[in-house]
Design brief:
It is a single chain. By secondary structure, the chain is α+β, with helices and mostly antiparallel strands. The chain has 3 domains: 6-70 and 127-150, 2-Layer Sandwich (Ribosomal Protein S5, domain 2), CATH 3.30.230.40; 77-122, no CATH class; 152-294, no CATH class. It has helices spanning 42-55, 71-74, 82-96, 108-112, 128-201, 207-219, 224-243, 248-267, 272-292; strands spanning 6-14, 17-26, 31-36, 59-69, 77-80, 119-122. α1 (42-55) links the parallel β3 and β4. α5 (128-201) packs antiparallel against α6 and α8 (248-267) packs antiparallel against α9 (272-292). The protein is rod-shaped. It starts with 5 loop residues before the first strand and ends with a helix. One of its GO terms (molecular function) is hydrolase activity. InterPro entries: YicC-like_C (IPR013551), YicC-like_N (IPR013527), YicC/YloC-like (IPR005229). This is YicC family protein.
Length: 296
């Protein structure tokens, strides 16, 4: 199990230069990948994008790649087209042999001003295939660090969530023990009020029928089923948390079911002890929900 928060940085180098890749991830409902590539070839960015997509399931991912060329690569290469230059010099020599044509001494600037240049300044050539290899190496290092951090934080979150789930289970047992008392208290209170009303007004009513209706209504206030289902949800929550790697969406769904059972329990009882217990459970559930939002 992993959280969605992580950071990693990787580098790789060869004679051409050095590639540095940094990857930062935060929580998000889906997988969102952004790559800042410093105007490198599209294939380089695509390589990072593909590797991230194959490694992560959820989270907002921001990757940055920079390329620092080597000193040798920064130096421009100057080449002389000696064949062309020799041809020019031969042509100038022939001009001298033409009678009546005045010529002057040839200067370097005269040669540089010729229409077809014999002097070439070559920009350093970056091999795209080499860039991709460096990118793969640096990205793997960065991703490994991200995964390690996400797994470590995920384990820390899991331990805290499990501790809170165990605490909620103890409160659930308290609710189970008070379910019958809550229903009985409601029935007794309602029955006493009604019987007092009958005695005060002198109404002739079928007490047996009245008591039957009261008992039936009191049964609707019994939240035993809700707290039993709550126990099942809590156990399933723990199993998913301990056994699966990608858990965020499943746990979010289960939290909704758990909240539903807790809310129904609160609506069926007016015992102050039960209501206080429900309030504390809901407080813990909100803390768990916030933590689950950061799980992959």
């Amino acid at each position: 199990m992993r959280s969605m928060t992580g950071y990693g940085n990787g580098t790789a180098s060869n004679d051409m230069g050095m590639i540095e890749v940094s990857i930062k991830t935060v929580n998000s409902r889906f997988l969102e990948i952004t790559v800042h590539d410093s105007k490198l070839p599209v294939s380089v960015s695509q390589e990072i994008y593909t590797m991230i997509k194959e490694s992560l399931e959820r989270g907002k991912v921001i990757a940055k790649i920079t390329f620092t060329p080597s000193t040798a690569l920064k130096q421009k290469q100057i080449t002389v087209d000696t064949d062309l230059l020799n041809s020019y010099m031969d042509a100038f020599s022939k001009l001298k042999d033409i009678k009546g044509l005045k010529t002057k001494k040839i200067r370097i600037q005269d040669l540089l001003d010729l229409p077809v240049s014999w002097l070439h300044v070559d920009e350093p050539k970056i091999e795209e295939s080499e860039l991709i290899l460096l990118t793969k190496e640096a990205t793997k290092v960065a991703l490994d660090q991200v995964m390690d951090m996400r797994e470590q934080e995920g384990q820390n979150l899991a331990q805290d969530i499990l501790r809170r789930i165990d605490w909620i289970e103890k409160q659930r047992i308290f609710l189970v023990e008070n379910a019958e008392q809550s229903s009985y208290a409601y029935e007794k209170r309602f029955r006493d009020r009604l019987l007092d009303l009958i005695a005060e007004t002198g109404l002739l009513l079928d007490k047996g029928r009245i008591l039957t209706e009261i008992a039936a209504h009191a049964e609707k206030t019994d939240f035993t089923e809700e707290v039993i289902r709550l126990g099942s949800h809590l156990e399933q929550f723990k199993q998913i948390l301990l056994q699966e790697k990608v858990v965020g969406k499943k746990l979010n769904f289960l939290l909704q079911e758990i909240n539903r059972e807790v809310n129904t329990t609160a609506s069926k009882s007016d015992l102050i002890e039960v209501l206080n217990c429900v309030i504390m459970i809901k407080t813990e559930l909100e803390k768990i929900r916030e933590q689950v939002q950061n799980l992959e």
